[in-house]
Write a structure and sequence with these properties.
Structural class: mainly beta
CATH class: Mainly Beta
CATH architecture: Beta Complex
Strand order of the largest sheet: 3-4-8-7-6-5
CATH superfamily: Peptide methionine sulfoxide reductase
CATH topology: Metal Binding Protein, Guanine Nucleotide Exchange Factor, Chain A
Number of domains: 1
Strand content: 25-35%
Number of helices: 2
Shape: globular
Number of strands: 9
Helix content: under 10%
Amino acid sequence: MKEFEKEINKLNKEQYEVTQNNKTETPYDNAYNDHFEEGIYVDVISKEVLFTSKEKFDAGCGWPSFTKPASDENIEELPDFSHGLKRTEVKSKKAKSHLGHVFDDGPDGNLRYCINSASLEFIPKKDMAKKGYEEYLKLFE
């Protein structure tokens, strides 16, 4: 993807494999599985807002899990029949980064967006305004 070539070239090996080659990072041994600070999670390539800490929960699966995206406009869901399974893949809309998968087994009948930490960058609530995400601060009021 030419538009994001510079950002893609900055990725470490794991980020590249996950976002560009649909790999899955190691469960439990990743940056955001046990991370519950207030803030937003953005696509590591395009920086589009994907999820907030308000929807994050401990699913016990080893990857960051969310009940819903911050905005349906920034993600896309696609059928995934890899590994002999029928799943729904989640990608970022602009950069087409592979994020993970969505399942229907979330808490209270909600969905569970099971997302690779390697595809995310966390922006703490205290840094959101200075990084240009001030419009999302209202989600934490």
